[in-house]
Write a structure and sequence with these properties.
There is one protein chain. Helices cover 85% and strands 0% of the residues. It has 2 helices and no strands. The protein has one domain. The chain is elongated and about 45 Å long.
Length: 46
């Protein structure tokens, strides 16, 4: 039980660090994706 939980925590930490490293490597693309999501979520009329 403890070993399984520890493996899950390690995998989650590895995925988070990988995402952070990818975002740090390409900040412009990540910001453009975030901006596109915000533009799609916000209504045009407002």
């Amino acid at each position: 039980m403890d070993r399984v939980q520890r493996n899950i925590m390690i995998q989650a930490y590895a995925t988070v660090t990988g995402i952070m490293r990818r975002a740090a490597a390409r900040p412009t693309s990540e910001l453009s994706v975030l901006r596109k999501f915000l533009r799609n979520d916000s209504p045009e009329g407002r």
